[in-house]
Amino acid sequence: MKPFLFAMLICLVGCHSSNSQSRIANSKEQAKEIDLTKVHESIEVFFKKYKEEGTSKAVDYIFSSNNLLASPDQLDNLKNKLDSTRRFIGNYKGKVLITEKDASSDLVLLTYLVKHEKQPIRFSFIFYKPDTEWVLFKFQYDDQIISELEDSGKIYFIK
Question: What is the C-alpha to C-alpha distance for residues 132 and 17, in angstroms, rounded to an integer?
Fold first, then answer.
């Protein structure tokens, strides 16, 4: 009888421990989701401005969280290059989240496929939370997503 009670006690302690660990993991995930709400809101506003008000307003908005990130000349250069790209690839048609990765609860990367009439481009946003507020740490765009997709289908990647 004693071995049976001992086994039951171990089972109950083990089950309680794994349930509490599961609850802790779930609460951390929920906190993380809530924590990224401001990041997602910033990106949604960025894309709304990108569509409705143009590149300049969108870039100004997304960089407004961190005015130490780029000089006015650098921002003007970015806006001009992105405007030039948009003229070539056509009107904005929408976006799709490709990936969301975090290095910690204070550093996150979001990458989007940005659809235009003639071809897609990729936008990558890195946000950093040095204290309590998220700030843009890095923004870049490129058109290499097509060639990367093609490369991923090559035989030396398929093994």
Answer: 32
Confidence of residue 74 (pLDDT cuts 50, 70, 90): very high
Number of CB atoms found within 10 A of residue 94's CB = 12
Average pLDDT over every residue of 25-34: 47
pTM of the model: 0.75
Closest-CA residue to 115 (of 98, 92, 82): 92
Q: For the segment 104-115, what is each residue's pLDDT rounded down to a tens digit?
A: 889 999 999 999
Do 128 and 135 form a contact (C-beta atoms < 8 A)? yes
Phi, psi of 143 (to 5 degrees): -115, 25
- Cα radius of gyration (the chain): 23
Q: Which of 85, 63, 65 is nearest to 74 (CA)?
A: 63
CB crowding 125-135: b at 16 or more within 10 Å, else e: bbbbbeeeebb
Residue 118 identity (one-letter amino acid): K
Residue with tokens 């398929």: 158
